[in-house]
Amino acid sequence: MAEPEGYESVLCVKPEVHVYRVPPRASNRGYRAAEWQLDQPAWSGRMRITARGDTAYIKLEDKNSGELFAQAPVEQFPSIAVESVTDSSRYFVIRIEDGNGRRAFIGVGFVDRGDAFDFNVALQDHFKWVKQQGELAKQARNPDQGPKLDLGFKEGETIKLSIANMKKKEGSSGGRPRLAGSGGASLIPPPPGSKAPLFPLPGGQAPPPLAGPQAGTAEAADPSMPWPPQPPVSTGEEALDIWGDFAKASGSFSSQAQQNSGWVQF
């Protein structure tokens, strides 16, 4: 069987391996290495595992010349091409093929258990890579068949939002009193000449109006008396009179006192 063309990579190399003749299996219970005459191997050499495309090849070669003794192509793992024995972890049964299509089963054993572990892991890693490449190629051919993320609501499904600091106690103002025109309590200006408070009364009530003259009194009968009473208009003499105390005080200083105090009269 001719090898397919393409790049060949090396997966694992073990310098020492033994080959045994495997007796025909009488039942389906599996192979047992104890039945192989382990002290008399049929051949000894090195093992080299290579990969070309999706297929791995187990090659048994001469240690010195590198001449090929046998080759076992592996297209799947685990499969009938490579089987473990039931009584040891260092021995396997592989299916070899020649160029004429003939097949045979032989036993392969490793001296060290670590070599047997590497042999098993090399085949597992290769076919894991083959599986990943197949999935990527399938997605590239059919990009619309991949899994899609569904973010829509199902039938009867609801969502609940919890937002903090949205509720306030009933009756709480929660702010400062606002001026007139801003929706708060209005400030009523007092009438001229009054001393009414400029701040609103409790509850937003306006201050009571000033009491007018009672009926039957002289103030009520005299039309010349305006209500509310207006502040008196000051004349020039009254305006100057407010400085009278200062004028009197300036004349009470004696000349001797002015000289002693350092004041200079202009």
UniProtKB/TrEMBL annotation:
One of its GO terms (biological process) is protein transport. It is found in: Cytoplasmic vesicle, Clathrin-coated vesicle membrane. The keyword Protein transport applies. The keyword Transport applies. Keywords: Endocytosis, Protein transport, Transport. SUPFAM superfamilies: PH domain-like (SSF50729). Residues 165-237 are annotated as: Disordered. InterPro entries: NECAP_PHear, PH-like_dom_sf. Residues 7-163 form the NECAP PHear domain. One of its GO terms (cellular component) is clathrin vesicle coat. Transmembrane segments: none annotated. Involved in endocytosis. Belongs to the NECAP family. This is NECAP PHear domain-containing protein. It comes from Phrynocephalus forsythii. The lineage of its organism: Eukaryota, Metazoa, Chordata, Craniata, Vertebrata.
